[in-house]
Amino acid sequence: MKRLIRRDGAACKACGSKNDLTIDHIDPTSFGGAILDPENMQLLCKWCNSEKSREEESRHKIITSMNLRFMEERERVAPARFAPHRPSASAWG
Ligand SMILES: [Zn+2]
Questions:
Q1: Domains of the chain by range and CATH?
Q2: Which of 13, 43, 68, 86 is the most buried (most CB within 10 A)?
Q3: pLDDT digits (tens, 9 = 90+) for 15-51
Q4: 12 CA distance to ligand 1 centroid (A)?
Q5: At residue 83, does pLDDT exceed 60?
Q6: Hey, CA dihedral for 43, 45, 50, 56, is it positive or negative?
Q7: Backbone phi, then psi, for 33, in 5-degree steps?
Q8: Separation of CA 6 and ligand 1 centre (Å)
Q9: 20-27 contacts, C-beta under 8 A, 24 or more apart
Q10: How far is the centre of ligand 1, averaged over its atoms, from the C-alpha of 76 (Å)?
């Protein structure tokens, strides 16, 4: 955690505040983000953190409905279109 604080300069990444700092997961763990990866962490003040999660929640809802539509679409097209790519004979020289 100390490394993270040094990296981010012990200030909120979004507004630069040094008060009420929290560790925020850039990719929210509740949506599958890496929980222990320092690369997935940043310092945010309490205010920015709650703003961010509110934004993410609405974005997540949009993404989920988009994914659902994509998956429905994929069910409808022939499975052959998603067959794994086979290297052509010329790739072997
Ligand atoms: Zn802030």
A1: 2-79 (1.10.30)
A2: 43
A3: 999 999 998 888 887 767 787 888 888 999 999 999 9
A4: 5
A5: no
A6: negative
A7: -75, 155
A8: 17
A9: 20/45, 20/46, 20/47, 21/45, 21/46, 22/46, 22/49, 24/48, 24/49, 24/52
A10: 46
